């Protein structure tokens, strides 16, 4: 089962830090056949996204949910929360560590 962990500003950066330097050609897009949910009064947007990147151990892909809170003018993101497929990411980080450890020996 794939679970999703919630990460706010800065938390996700720390969670992904072991693999971030190895992500090449990273792309992030809104998932096909999904619509953003927009609450104009609350200035919130919720959307589903997908990512893809190349790494030394193969392709990295993941699914995300973003909750964005926009500023008064609706042009700047004041706050965001992000959920990602964390079981997949934890396993991928483990695979990356195995490769790094083997390279050191």
Compute the number of structural domains: 1
Helix content: 10-25%
Q: Tell me the CATH architecture.
A: Roll
Write down the secondary-structure element order: EHEEEEEH
Describe this structure in words.
With 105 residues, this protein is α+β, with helices and mostly antiparallel strands. The chain has one domain (4-99): Nuclear Transport Factor 2, Chain: A (Roll). It is 24% helix and 47% strand. It is built from 2 helices and 6 strands, in the order βαβββββα. The protein has helices at 11-16, 86-104; strands at residues 4-8, 24-30, 37-39, 44-55, 58-70, 77-85. Strands 1, 2, 3, 4, 5 and 6 form a 6-stranded antiparallel β-sheet that branches. The protein starts with a strand and ends with a helix. The relative contact order is 0.23. This is SnoaL-like domain-containing protein.
List keywords for this structure.
Fungal_Meroterpenoid_Isomerase; elongated; Nuclear Transport Factor 2, Chain: A; SnoaL-like domain-containing protein; alpha+beta
How is the secondary structure organized here?
Layout: E1 4-8, H1 11-16, E2 24-30, E3 37-39, E4 44-55, E5 58-70, E6 77-85, H2 86-104
Antiparallel strand pairs: 1-6, 2-4, 3-4, 4-5, 5-6
What is shown here, in short?
The chain is an alpha+beta fold and 105 residues long. It has helices spanning 11-16, 86-104, and strands spanning 4-8, 24-30, 37-39, 44-55, 58-70, 77-85.
